[in-house]
Amino acid sequence: MPQKGPHISISPDFVVNRILRINIDDFQNWPESVREFAISIAEELFLAAYNPFVNADTVRQSVRAHYDRDSVALAHYYATAISEGITMFWSAHEAEVKFRDHLIEELRKIMPSEGILTDPASLVATETDATDLRMELPLVVVEPDTAEQVAGIVKLANELKFALIPRGGGSGMTGGAVPARRRSVIVSMTRMQSISSIDLEAMTVTCQSGCITQDVINAVNRAGALFSVDPASKLASSIGGNVSENAGGPMAFEYGTTIDNLLWWRMVTPTGEIISVERENHPRHKILPDETAVFVVKDVSGGVRNVIHLRGDEIRLPGLGKDVTNKVLGGLPGVQKEGTDGIITEVCFTIHPKPKYSRVMSVEFFGRSMRPAAVVVRELVGLRNRIREQGDFAHISAMEEFNAKYVQAIDYQTKSTKYSGHPISVITVQVDGDDPYLLDKCVNDIVQVVEQQENVDITVARDAREADRFWEDRHRLSLIAKRTSGFKINEDVVIPIDRIPDFAAFLEQVNLECTAQAYREALQEVGRLSGFPMEDREFNKEFSYVSKASVGGLKSEEVSDDEMHTRCVAFLASLREKYPHLAKSIEKIEAHMEASRLIVASHMHAGDGNCHVNIPVNSNDADMLRHCEEVANRVMAQCQE
C-alpha cells in the first residue's frame, strides 16, 4: 500500500486510542520509536474502518506483515498492547460486517433492494454535510419512497438498536445530517421528490420532503404564485430540511421563516408512528408578536394527539427577530429540531399572490465604519413596521446585508458610479406591490432613509435580469471559505435590532486585532531568521505598533483591518528589498501569514437580527483552530452581553 495513513485533522494519539484502545495518558509516556510504530499500525487500520474504498483484507495482510517484521524489537509490554489492540480491532470489524449483513436482510423485507445502498461512493457522500465534519462512516444508506417505508425503517432501528440520520440535500451547516455513532444508517429522502399539487384557489403547494427548494420555487412561480421560503442553500436544500431547520432567507423579512408558512406536514416519529401536524386558521401572514399560532397533532386515523399554542413573542423574543435557542418551540414536532424527533415525509405550505411590480435595490456603504449600514438596517425594519400599520400599500419583501469580507470573497462588482473601490457593506432590498405609484413611494422612502448616512450610494435595478444579478451576490456568500477549502466555523447569533450598530463595530475591532496578531507573528518569525540584524530601528518601531494593535491598543475607528493589512504587505516588501538575502524566507513567512490569518465575516438575512458569523479556518492548522475557537468564544460572549 503506497499510502498507509489517513489524511485527517485529529491527533495521532487519538487515532491510537480509537483504533488500538490504548490509554492516551499511558501512550504519551511510551518511547518515541515505539509510539511511531503504534501510530503507523493504527493509521493503517484507520483506513479499513473509515475508507470504504480500501480493501479490508489488503489492510489485514499489510498490518500483519508490518507487525511481524518490527515487533520483535519491542519490549513484551508494548508488543502485547499493540497486538491485543489489533486483535480487538479486527474482532470489532467482523462484528460490524456481520451486523450490516443482517441489517440489509431485514431492510429488504421493508423496501426494494435498489433503495439500499452500500457502495463506497454512497457511504462517503453521506458521511458529512456542508460542514465537512466527518465523525463516523454510515453502515448503509437507505432511500425510501413512501412514508410507510420510513416508518418500517424507524421500527427496525428501535428493534436492532442502530441510529438513524435523516438526510435531505446535505446542505446544512449545523451537523444535523452527520452520523456521530458507529452503527448509523442514513435515511436519504432523494426518492421522495413529488410536488403533488399547487392549488391557486386555496393558495397552497403540497410536496414530498425530498423536493429541492428551488424546484418548488420554480413550480409555484410557473403556476403564477410566490413560494417565499428561500434559504441561500435553495439550489441544494430539501423541503424536509427547511422544516427541520426552520429555514429562512431574504424573504423572511416580510413572509417569515418556514414555520410561518406551514399549513400542515406529515412525519414519522421516533417510535415509527405516522402523524400529521396542522395549523389552525392560518391568517396567511407571518406570525406577529401579539398573535398565537395553534397547531394540532393528529395520528394516522385523524385522532387528536395534542394541541400546541405558540405565541408570536415566544417564536421571536421582544427586540429580537428570531430566537435560535428555542429548539423546543413548545413541543411542536419536526420544526427546528434538526431531524432529532422524527423524519418529515410530506409538507403543505401556504403560497402568496405574485406581486405585479418589484424593485430591487443595492445599497453600498463606503468608508471605514460598518455602523451606517447597521443603522440603515434598523431604520428599514422600522419602515417595514410602519408600512404594515398603514395597510401594506407595498411590501419591503426581502432584505440581506453582508460585510466587506464577503465583498472580497465573492469578487463583488461595485454598482455605484459615485464611489470607487469596493464597499465595506452591501444591503440588497426588494420592494413588491400591485400599485406602481405606491411602490415608487416606498422606494423613495427607502432612499430617504439611506441618504441620511454618509458615504453611501443606492442603485435600483433597471430590469428583472439586473435584479437577479443583484440577488446572485447573496447566493455566492459561501465562497467566504474558498481559501480554507470550504472549512469554516459558524456562529448563528441573533442581535437585538437596536444593538446591531454596536455589534458591527465590535466585529470591526475583532478583525483589526486578528490582522494585527497575524502581522505580529509574521514579524516575530522574520526577527528569528538567521542573518537578520540584532538591531533595526524601523523594524522595532513597527513591531511595537502592531503589538499594541494586536491587544486592542488601537481602535478600528482609527485604522481598519484592511488598512493594517495593506501596511503589513508594504512593510514586508520593504524588508525583502532591504535584506535581499532573506527575501525568499520573508516571502514564505508572508504566505503563511496570509493562509493562517483569521477574518470574521458576517451577514444578516431578513433584517431580523439573525447574524451568521463565519470564520474560515484551515482544519489541519492546530494553531489557527485554537485561535479561531478563542475568537468564536469572544463573539458569543459579546452576544450574551
Question: Notable features of this structure?
Answer:
single chain; 641 residues; alpha+beta
| Average pLDDT taken over every residue | 91
Sheet with the most strands: spatial strand order:
5-6-12-8-9-10-11
Number of strands: 20
Main sheet overview? 7 strands, antiparallel
- Radius of gyration from the alpha-carbon trace, in angstroms: 28 Å
Task: Describe what you observe in this structure.
With 641 residues, the chain is of the alpha+beta class. 43% of the residues lie in helices and 18% in strands. It is built from 21 helices and 20 strands. β8 and β9 (274-279) form a beta hairpin. The protein is flat.
Give a short overview:
By secondary structure, the protein is an alpha+beta fold. It has 21 helices and 20 strands.
Please outline the helices and strands.
Layout: H1 12-20, H2 24-27, H3 32-50, H4 56-70, H5 76-107, E1 116-117, H6 120-125, E2 140-142, H7 147-160, E3 163-167, E4 184-188, E5 195-199, E6 204-208, H8 213-223, E7 225-226, H9 239-245, H10 252-255, H11 258-261, E8 262-268, E9 274-279, E10 292-298, E11 304-311, H12 312-315, E12 343-350, E13 352-353, E14 357-365, H13 371-389, E15 395-403, H14 404-409, E16 425-433, H15 436-450, E17 456-460, H16 464-475, E18 488-494, H17 500-527, H18 537-550, H19 561-578, H20 583-596, E19 601-605, E20 610-616, H21 622-640
Helix pairs in contact: 1-3, 3-4, 3-5, 13-15, 13-17, 17-18, 17-19, 17-20, 17-21, 19-20
